Amino acid sequence: MNLKNYNLNDFSAYLSSILFSVDYDFDKAESQLLNVYAKEPGNLLYVLLLCQLYQKKIEYCSLPNGDTMQDETELANYAQKGLDMLDKKPRTAWIDSDFQNQGAFLSYKANLEEALKAYQQAISINPKATDARIGLGVVYQKQKKWNAARAVFEQARRLDPNDFTLRCNLAEILIEQDQFKEAEEHLAFVRRLTDRRHLDALILSGRLYARLGDKARDNDDTVEADGRFDKAIRFLDKAAQADNYGDFSRKITPAESYTVHYLSGYCQIRQLQAREKKGSLIERFNFATESQRNVDKALVKFGRIPEYAHNSFEANQAVRQLKKYRKESSPLKEVGAQGLKGTVVVILAILVLISAQIFFLFRETSLVRAITQPDVVCYVQPSKVQPLLKLDSAGDVKLTQFARLTFNHPDSLIARWQRDMGETIRIERGWIENADAKPTPLLSEGFYVFITFASLLFIIAGLALPELTKLKVGSIELEKAKLETITTTTSLNITSSASAASSASR
Amino acid sequence: MGHLIIIDNPAIKPVEETLREVDQVLKTQPVPDADAMAQLVKDLYSFGTKIMNDAPEAAEKLFRKVTELDPNYANGYINWGFSLHKQGRNDEAVDQYKISLTKAPEPALALDVLTWLGGKDIRRYQDVLDVLKAQPDLIAPLDKEKLLGDMEFQLKHFSKAAEAYECARQLAPADPFILKALGDVHSALLQEAKASQYYTQAIALVTESVDTAEQAISALPPVAPGQVQPDRNSLETTVIEARKTLARLHYEIGDTLLSLDADLEQVWTHWKEAIQIAPGAESTLSIADMLYNNGLANKDRLTKAADTYTTYNQASPTPDSDAYVLLNLGLCHYYLYNYPAAIETLTKAAQPAGDYQHYANYWLGVLYNSQRKFEEAEPYYQRAFRQKPDEYFIIEGLILCLSALGKKDEALAICQKTKARYSTSQERTAELTYLIGNIHLDFKELDKALHYYEDALQQDPLHVFARHNMAHILEKKGEYGKARDEWNNAKSNYLDLLAKSTPA
């Protein structure tokens, strides 16, 4: 590059413009730019860049103490210097770019009425001046003259159809005018061509879908509302990633970031409100769990808004109410436990019923009898054993041992006797103590009938339990009314900050 | 050796060919006779001297050869240094100049070299002091003391400067510029009363000589028409010269005060005096130039510059003939937004053929361009382009104008043609490729523009504007990751170029 062909001060100025608009290194950019401005105080480009620098610094450096006063003073100071510089040129010699610069400096000084006139003059001299039209549109936007702004941006779009920021400006106005379909067309165009990396388009898309969600909910179209809020959340969460800049169109400003978090939290709650509660127990349980997750997410998002943020008051209020809501109406506690109780009762009742039927049908089998009839202690009467000992001294030991044994049924005793003593000594039933005692069976017919009916009753009761807990579900509905209050106090902040968002990129 | 005739005309015989022939002859006659060698050196030197202003690169090769053939030829090194300086390679130029001082140059030439080294552009003050210490007899004693004083003054060694000037004063007590220099030292030391005393003394000294000569003229008998009076003529010349000296003195006092950040009114007092005393003198032009060069952001200075140029022009024996003065006067009017006067003056400046004609045409183009009168601007740019087809700023201006007129193909054709002529110079080709990219960008053909910027960067990876615009286009296309990489590269390029351009 032949350096003789260029003004080296311009190199420093352009370098500083990269430093502040790409690296966000405001201090370095400021010292660099002030240095070249000192060398060429009559260079209008340097004054314009200084204004842009301070404007950006104000947008990106909202510190906890919120002190941007010095930068605001510098901005006004250099904007005035720019105007003074322009005044040196006789008005009769002014061309479109002079009026356009005047418009920019007046906008920096917030003198919107005069800025408007300057931009109009620039356009009247050069109708193809796209930048002047954008400037004029922004002024109209700031004045909330939506129709005028829209007309100007439309004209500018015809001159440069592929300008993404211009499309976003248009979309913003269309959202304001509830022209959601057209707004979405512009935003979809930008999202598609930028691979969803244009920050303004993402924020505005979030805002648009939040509005669309609200609209669907107002029309009781809960499924549509759910989907729209979901989309809004995805756009907003993506926009929040621009905090690290990455390969987004630009870095998100702190104010935009707080708005995005708030709006995302808002959509999270709105989505919860929009979701339809299904009748079945499992669906209700899932819904309750999902709701819990939504509340948690919303809490995280509101929690990211620091104390010094413009919407911290609303965020704090939302956090307080959500926490209270969460505490009072934990889904597990309110829905999950009730559902579980009913199910357990039904299952247990069915088990009891089945068991009762089995026991009753097989009540005569030894196994069932062993279970259902209590044992009777049987043993050979000692008076019967003594004579036998005299008869058979050889079987002394066996008899002695046998006499010590007890059995829970006479038949068992007889069987054991026959096995141990063989055919030599025959036992008689009369020798057995308690041989004819009749144990009271556990599963009497009356008891069986009782168990059967009781089980059926419990099954019916278990199945009917969710209906019984309907009152509790109703209480969630009541709590949702509280949530409404959380989500209806936000609109002012959402609108104003999104406007700031789109203007930051200019 | 006698066979070789150096034709010092690059149009007939290019420098390369001449040097090849010299090498060939030297090969055939390894030990040439001294006279023939001296003649060859002289011829090559004179060839180089002729072309060094217009073709410093070619001249450099000739002077390199001259010093190869005669390593003790001081003038060869001096002109080598000058041709390097013309190419903007000042560090290398300084090296050659320094070598020349070791080759016993003529004192006047040595003084020129030292003055250049210690001048406002190069500022090698300490180097000059070192040379004068090592070679005290290099220049005349008075010049040496004055130069020592000047260098010490620039280095802010004011007491040493005062010592040197006092020594000079001993050698030339009637030199008003030494008194002025002593006044400068006291001004720098903020001893205004003493400084003023020296300035008054210096002015009085010259005024006295003016008065004396004027009195002598008035004492002469009146001249009859057609009669020649040699004494009168000689005295009149003395008066004119003395007035010029006085004007120069006032100018230099003002200049020093300006460099010491004095109030412009204080400076203007001296300069106004200088203009009144000798309106047509060089000092008037210097004042106008000083005011113009430092006055772009200052309406008052620009107005004063315009008035001074006007005075100088009118005082000239042939007004409206100095294109340089007319050009600068036209530019003063332009920067003062006095467009009709600017057009009139620049049109006059564009009349005579010479070094400033293309500038005048170019600025007329700029003037109409800045009023969005593109159709009126175009012929002037075209004229300037025909006169200097290689000047980058003219090509750039013409292309901007053609783009504004929607003449894309014409603009592209100009770039392509110029590019074809410089196919061997990567740097020039890159510049033109960058301009082609700009044309496409103007017509919103982003992909084409991107392609040309990439090309320009391949030819010259340091072309930061091509990279800057490339990053801008990538951003416009929504390729933010790539754009960010290019912004970072552009940042490094800017830093490299700024470091490169900063004097060591």
TrEMBL record, chain A:
Keywords: Membrane, TPR repeat, Transmembrane, Transmembrane helix. This is Tetratricopeptide repeat protein. TPR repeats lie at residues 96-129, 130-163. SUPFAM superfamilies: TPR-like. It holds the Pfam family TPR_19. It comes from the Bacteria. The keyword Lyase does not apply. The keyword Membrane applies. The chain crosses the membrane at residues 342-362, 447-465. GO terms for biological process: cell division. InterPro entries: TPR-like_helical_dom_sf, TPR_rpt.
From TrEMBL, chain B:
SMART domains: TPR (SM00028). SUPFAM superfamilies: HCP-like, TPR-like. Keywords: Repeat, TPR repeat. TPR repeats lie at residues 358-391, 430-463. PROSITE patterns: TPR (PS50005). This is Uncharacterized protein. The lineage of its organism: Bacteria, Pseudomonadati, Bacteroidota, Cytophagia, Cytophagales. The keyword Repeat applies.
